[in-house]
Amino acid sequence: MPNLKIWDDNLEEWVYLQMGGIQGLSGLSGLAGLSGLSGVSGLSGAGLSGLSGLSGITGLSGLSGITGLSGLSGATGLSGATGTTATQVVAGAIINPNSVYDNDDVFPMFRAPADLTITRIHIHTSSSSYNVAGDLKYADNVFTSSYANASTIDICDTSSGVRTITSGFDDATVPSGKYIYFDMDSAPNALMVYFYIEIHFTYD
Questions:
Q1: What is the extent of the structural domain holding 190?
Q2: Which of 16, 46, 137, 180 is most buried, with most CB under 10 Å away?
Q3: pLDDT tens track for 54-65
Q4: How many structural domains is the chain composed of?
C-alpha cells in the first residue's frame, strides 16, 4: 500500500502513514453498542405515574361549607326598629318665665309629626316656693292670639313647685300636625328663675 504524507502541527514535521492503517476504522462498528440506549425505555419505571396521587385535590370540595353564610339572613331582625310603642320625650326649660309672660303667655313646645298620645307631663320650678299655673294644649297653629281649634291636654298647675300627670288627661290624643304649647294662666313670680317641663308620649 502507498504511504500517506500528513503534516503534524504538534511535531512540526511531515509524517508518513501506511494507507492500510485506515482499515482500523472498521472498528467503528463498535458504535453499534449505542443500541444500548434502548435502555431509556427504562424511564417507564420512573414512578412518574405516582403523580396520579394529585387526584387528592378533589378534597377542596370541602369549601362548599361556605354556604353557611346564609345565616346572615338573620339581620332581618332589625325590622323590629319599626315599632312605634317606644315612649318619646320632649323637654325644655322656660328661663325667667315672668318676663316671658309679659311678652306672651303662650310658648310652643313642638309639632306632632304623627298621631300621638300624651302619657306623662312633668313640671318642676326653680324653687318649691314658686308655682306656675297653666295648661298644656294643642291647636292647628300657634299664631299669636289665634291658636285655631285649641284643645286642652291637661291643667298643669304646680304645687310646691312640682306637678306630675300620668292619667286623667282632658284630651291626651293629639292628631298629626297639631302644635303642642304651654299656656300660662297668670304671671309667675318674678323671682322664679325658670321652670322645667317634659312631655312623654307614644305614637298611635
A1: 88-203
A2: 137
A3: 444 444 444 444
A4: 1
Residue 65: CB partners within 8 Å, gap ≥ 6? none
In a domain, 186, yes or no: yes
Other CB atoms within 10 A of residue 16 CB: 9
44 occurs within a structural domain:
no
On whether residue 63 sits in a domain, the answer given is no
Q: What is the CATH number of the domain that holds 143?
A: 2.60.120
Per-residue pLDDT of 176-196, as tens digits, reads 999 999 999 999 999 999 999
pLDDT at 144: 76
The ranges of the chain with pLDDT < 70 are 1-84
Q: How many CB atoms lie within 10 A of CB 134?
A: 26
Report how far apart, in Å, the C-alpha atoms of 24 and of each of 18, 27, 195 are: 12, 6, 133
3-state secondary structure of 133: coil
Domain membership flag for residue 21? no
